[in-house]
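#struct-help
A.M.: can someone run this one for me? Single chain, 126 residues.
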Amino acid sequence: MLIVWLIILIVGVVIGIWTLLYFVIKRSYHTKYLKKGGTVLDSRNAFTYKNIIASIGGLENIRDINSDGPVCVLELLSVGLIDEKWAQNLGLKLSINDSNVRLEVKGFNFKTFVLKTQRAIKSISS
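D.P.: on it. Structure tokens below:
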């Protein structure tokens, strides 16, 4: 019986030490990340407007943009500037033709994305 209690005590101590280490490491990582000014939206893999535009080569690379329901069609100056791996990490499905790119995301409507991009392109060209 004494051996059983000794084993339970050892297991409890090991679990306690692992729990303490987990919280110390988690807290220090979170504190370091916030000190750098980081948020979840600053992550490179976050599905944000800034990251989508950057993955297709920036606003300067877009010649024209249209929306066909759940699909966004971009006419680009250079298809070579697209970072396909980054776009796939964001969840974008790319279909690349000569200078046209079709963006698809399941469950995402591109209306506001297209409007915001058209305004940004107009402000750049003006």
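A.M.: thanks! The mean pLDDT is 85.
D.P.: also worth noting: Residues 2-38 form one domain.
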